[in-house]
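Protein in question reproduced for absentees:

***
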Amino acid sequence: MFHVDQGSACKRRNMSTATRRATWALILCVLFLAAATALGGCGGEGPGEVLQIGGIPDQEAAKLARRFNTVADYLRDELDVQVEYVPSVDYAALVTAFKNGDVHLGWFGGLTGVQARDASPGARAIAQRPRDTEFHSVFVAGSDLEVTSLEDLKGLTFTFGSESSTSGHLMPRHFLLQAGVDADADFQGLPGYSGSHDKTWKLVESGSFQAGALNEAVWQKAVDDGKVDLGKVRVFFTTPPYFDYNWSVRGDLDQAFGEGFTQRIQSALMSLSPSQEGEKEILDLFQAQGFVPSDNGNYEAIEDVARDLGIIR
């Protein structure tokens, strides 16, 4: 007769149960860690481990993607953190994303920079191009029109860029008022808003509007690239200078990424050099030879103009 050792059988059953429990515990642990990794938590650096950057959509989406993805690659190497470009559908969306912490580092115009920093306590401008210390808007008109001054725009159709644009709306409207032209009363109908600088000159070139105002850098690049038909559209007025584009950061970056992280970002931007091939590509995309330090005080005049015009309150 086959004899069963009750003690040995009990031990085997207990060992089998323990093994199964250990196996399930291991499986659950693996699943938990996989889920935590997918959510960006558990054992990592937390939700702040991905530096999210953005920029106002002032040009075609393809150009913006190339510009900011190139910056993201550079900052990833320089800062040793993951960096992601977050596109925005319009200017206001970028301001909102910055306010909510969905964008940590943003390339803003003068006006949107003021709006974003006002909405995010502790945020500050850290860098700009040298040209942004003396930026200009250009006014363009159909080449067949007798337009030589801002006063000559009365009675014509006119388009700005985005309503939130410094160089495509805020400052052009300001200089129009200084010349005695009320954009809401003196044009033929209300002014249009193209949404971006490259669309503005194209609308004038096509005859959809008789005149418009846009960023001088976008205009000059389009002319240099041979994209503009100067027989159909021309510049007739360039504004006085003002501060414009800037890189701004949220005030909580050091808390999220470690002490001194904001300074590291600023230093990385400052160190971009046209003598380095990869870095030259970035600077070319920004039409710059480099970046220089900036601060919130540079944009106080922009804020004053925006408040005077009722664009911010």
